[in-house]
Amino acid sequence: MKWKMKVFAVVLCLAFSAGSLTGCNAGAGGADGTGQGAGENTVTISGAGIEAVKVDLGEFQEEARTYIYSVINNWPSKKFYTAEGVDLQTVLESVNADGYESITVRGADGYESSFTKEQLTEPRYYYPNLEMDSESKAEQVPFLLSVRFAEDSVSEADMTEAKPTLLFGQANVFEHNSPAFVEDISEIILSDKDPGCWEAPTVFPEAGAVAPGETVKLQHPSAGLVKIFYTLDGSEPTECSNLYNPSTYQPELNVPITVTENVTIKAFAVGYGKHPSEVAEFHFHVVN
Q1: Contact 90, 80 (CB under 8 A)
Q2: 110: phi > 0 → left, psi -120 to 50 → alpha, else beta; which?
Q3: Which residues have CB under 8 Å from 36's CB, separation 6+?
Q4: What does residue 61 show for φ and ψ, rounded to 5 degrees?
Q5: What backbone phi and psi angles, to 5 degrees, belong to 118?
């Protein structure tokens, strides 16, 4: 029951602020969106054998860089951000963090996102042709701890100062990355535990005989935290395969699969903080 309440809280917060930077942290800065005073860019890092240490992001001025990020949220809407900050990996290296398997980035209001080590280190990109679903002219970008950014803009001139904010690129041009951004970061918690895998999707109705035109729903107990990808031709699904649940807030976009002939559905779940699920396989045959 606790995890259900947590998922509900995250989804509810996202619903009230869809289109803003994070699910629960929109407007965490001052009313005019301006920066913070000295000492307010401090983040506490702990876990995986590291005693809690406070890191002032202001000490990384020489390493600070500006990047553009392509972004998709859970509506799903597409936009861009321009942000200045320091690579998260640089900050972790400064405290000799290397024995971790996953991290959790937590905001001052409790909103948090977790990532496996693999998710932190795999290449991620800015896609300037995001709106055309094109990966052309992609540029690699880091997980960034930003203290200046501009939402829905590719201009550095639009950036304003803000509390520490986590932004990161897309692993592919279809990835929904915005819901895992975290604003007003207070803690980064490292874990040396194996984060495990997400559960595999299930189907309704159960696999087997169906009438022509029957619709099949793909289901997952953490539907608000994962994306389900599937194929209908017997091939192994990837994160560029058909996306079953493109929207958390527009249910009409999550269309059940219509079965008109014998078919094998292969599906798996992907989400931040855990490894992808195993591929589940469902065989349906049409009975007239």
Answers
A1: no
A2: left
A3: 29, 30, 161, 162, 163
A4: -55, -40
A5: -65, -40
**pLDDT, position 136:** 98
**Banded model confidence at residue 16, pLDDT cuts 50, 70, 90:** very low
pLDDT in tens, 189-207: 999 999 999 999 999 999 9
- Cα–Cα separations (whole angstroms), residue 123 to 119, 163, 258: 9, 26, 35
- Beta carbons within 8 Å of 229's beta carbon, 6+ residues apart: 237, 238, 239, 240, 241, 242, 243, 244, 267, 268, 270
- From the list 75, 103, 74, the residue with the least C-alpha distance to 89 is 103
Tokens of 199: 């559960």
What is the structure's pLDDT at 39? 59
In one letter, which amino acid is 250? Answer: Q
